[in-house]
Design brief:
Strand content: 15-25%
CATH topology of the largest domain: TIM Barrel
Distance between the termini: 25 Å
CATH class of the largest domain: Alpha Beta
Oligomer: single chain
Number of helices: 12
Largest sheet: 10 strands, mixed
Structural class: alpha/beta
Helix content: 25-40%
Length: about 400
């Protein structure tokens, strides 16, 4: 039996709703060093903390990763980069999505390095740099086959030629993004992407540019495509212990990553429901026996996926319990009929290792598979309504 943790032991204020996410910063640090050991000291590591560090809390995660030796940080937008700067993060920050009209001055002011892929972006950065009396660093993104952002690989020559007209710009980096490094069946595309990138790098050198940083590899690329590491890599999901649906299973990885996030709540109400009675919206669950139902103060607005309705499971007092009925915006119901001595106030684990001494655990990848999505969407979707509790405290 698990002891019922009090709010103080759980790291949750006594006067707030008892639903929270625990973020294990020691596990985050350990995962970073798994990556560092894999790529070696000669390759820089850009820790990707975009999307609020995949839902884990960008500022706290960046602080710990900086202390562990991260060389760069990757964010999606200038807004995310500014948040890190205001929190005291001093390491170089790359804005992976570039910037929007009117944000060039902010990039200069906060020492953010934008990814660029259009000439008008370069013109804006060039003007902002000239006004500030500085030279602005940028990383040029080449679209080698992903089809999203980037200068098309077959248009690099003309782009590099035009880039030479901007006198206040320094091309500090050249990058691309691998579309399917995690899929063994798509290796021909990955190899073409690597070759196209190498060709693009040669074109930039021929035009007089000498990018200090060349980077292709995301989490999957780091482990599955050593030829794509360049001299800097960009781990994202693996830093947070999300790897089973990210790395190619054909390579049978056992990299030793640790789960960083645990999502927990408490039983707020218990009731017995007779056979034949339905519960929840839409009458999607009908009790086939006398059923003990626990209500949890967590729902899809908190990020607990509605797709887990009648399909998910949680951990209560060292036992699995099934989610029953439709998950609603603020509440979730579980069947605790077989959970001996379940009581109001018991800690319920919805993601991560169970509380107390149990060895049971619920991985983000397994939960996401049940809901028909990926682990990234699960952790990124944990809303701001759920407080993050950082461990060790």
């Amino acid at each position: 039996m698990h002891p019922v943790l009090d709010n103080k032991a759980a790291g949750v204020s006594a006067n707030q709703r008892p639903t929270w996410a625990e973020i294990d910063l020691d596990a985050l640090a350990a995962n970073f060093h798994v990556v560092r050991e894999r790529v070696g000291l000669a390759v820089k590591v850009m820790a990707v903390v975009k999307a609020n560090a995949y839902g884990h809390g960008a500022v706290e995660c960046a602080r710990r990763l900086a202390a562990e030796g991260a060389d760069w940080f990757g964010v999606a937008t200038p807004e995310e980069g500014i948040e890190l700067r205001l929190a005291g993060i001093t390491k170089p920050i790359l804005c992976l999505g570039g910037f929007w009209e009117g944000q060039a001055d902010a990039c200069i002011k906060h020492r953010l390095v934008p990814v660029v892929y259009r000439l008008d972006m370069l013109a804006a950065m060039d003007q902002a740099a000239a006004s500030a009396g500085v030279t602005a660093d940028v990383h040029v993104k080449v679209d080698t086959g992903m089809g999203r952002l980037g200068v098309r690989f077959d248009e690099v020559d003309s782009f590099a030629t035009a880039l030479k007209s901007f006198k206040n710009i320094r091309v500090d980096g050249l990058m691309t993004h691998l579309a399917a490094a995690d899929d063994h069946a798509c290796e021909p595309l990955t190899h073409r992407q690597i070759q196209r990138f190498e060709t693009a790098a040669g074109i930039f050198r021929a035009n007089g540019f000498a990018p200090e940083h060349q980077h292709l590899a995301n989490s999957a690329g780091i482990f599955d495509q050593p030829a794509a590491r360049g001299n800097m890599v960009r781990p994202g999901g693996v830093l947070y212990g999300l790897w089973r649906d990210v790395l190619d299973p054909a390579h049978k990885h056992e990299p030793g990553f640790q789960s960083v996030m645990s999502l927990r709540s408490r039983i707020s109400l218990l009731k017995w429901v007779p056979p034949g009675e339905t519960i929840g919206y839409g009458c999607t669950f009908e009790a086939s026996r006398r059923t003990r139902v626990a209500t949890l103060p967590i729902g899809y607005h908190d990020g607990y996926l509605r797709g887990l309705s009648n399909r998910g499971r949680v951990i209560v007092r060292g036992a699995y319990a099934s989610v029953i009925g439709r998950i609603s915006m603020d509440l979730t119901l579980v069947d605790v009929t077989n959970v001996e001595d379940a009581a109001v106030g018991d800690v319920v684990t919805l993601l991560g290792p169970g509380a107390g001494t149990t060895k049971l655990s619920l991985s983000a990848e397994a939960i996401a598979k049940v809901a028909g999505t990926i682990s990234y969407e699960l952790t990124c979707g944990i809303s701001d309504r759920v407080p993050r509790v950082y461990l060790p405290q």
